[in-house]
Amino acid sequence: MAYKYIIVTKPTEYVAHVELNRPDKLNAFIPQLWTELGQAFVQLSKDAEVRAIVLSGAGERAFTAGLDVVAAGEWNGEMANLPDTARRAAHMRRHILEMQASLTAIEQCEKPVICVMHGVSLGLAVDLACCADIRICSSDTRFAVKEVDIGLAADLGSLARLPKLVANHSWVYEVSLTAREFNAAEAQAVGFVSQVQPNKAAALACGLDMAAVIASKSPVAVQGTKELLHHGRDHTIAESLKYTAVWNAAAVQCDDVQSALMSGLNKTKPRFAKL
């Protein structure tokens, strides 16, 4: 598909790179960018030529500065023309759900998603990152759960997902209630990111290298691992064990298991069929 505000490339075999592409506006989100991002991840999820995805922002200054305030102001002006509170609320609810769905497409993508952040990474940047499976950033990254500073509770996923990603709930409450910025070192210390690289180029290279390693594995094993980790996050251990047994009852019957075992014995690189 052709996109205006994102760039989708395939830098190496089975790896896709999705870039937010409004660098002159710090990759701030407008409605078309929301739509394109959701469409891209729905498409990549079922693309047999893709086994791992890297998400980053174009330009040197920002991963994303969050919501484009000019576009948001125009949308609020349109909503004000609706005749009463009930109709404005219904319109707002549909709008929020549509935006949530665009980000949830990242979380629900069958393929592992590595989010590479740099520079300004505020508000919506945290929502996006929470939907990814692995988070890497450059040392100059500036984070914030910014929404209380613009008079609202974050409604696109940070408040739902961040407490499941970071064990320190006091820290989650602190950054969410104060909207204070935190840097790359702090993000790594609490476990929000797994790696901090010296600059954007190094962070992106790290993400692409990691994606290539993941893409070299069995796609049945990789997609199954992501599915089971997601299930385990939201269910009890007993429920997850039962689900894993059902999942692997089918999945372990694939040819990939034999290919992986034989390549280990023969010290060769396995090749796996597309999924």
From TrEMBL:
Keywords: Fatty acid metabolism, Isomerase, Lipid metabolism
Matches recorded under SUPFAM superfamilies: ClpP/crotonase
Record flagged with keyword Isomerase: yes
Protein's pathway: Lipid metabolism; fatty acid beta-oxidation
The keyword Lipid metabolism belongs to this UniProt entry's keyword annotation: yes
Database matches in InterPro entries: ClpP/crotonase-like_dom_sf (IPR029045), Ech1-like (IPR045002), Enoyl-CoA_hydra/iso (IPR001753), Enoyl-CoA_hydra_C (IPR014748)
UniProt-listed Gene3D superfamilies: 2-enoyl-CoA Hydratase, Chain A, domain 1, Lyase 2-enoyl-coa Hydratase, Chain A, domain 2
Family to which this protein belongs: Belongs to the enoyl-CoA hydratase/isomerase family.
The protein, known as: Delta(3,5)-Delta(2,4)-dienoyl-CoA isomerase
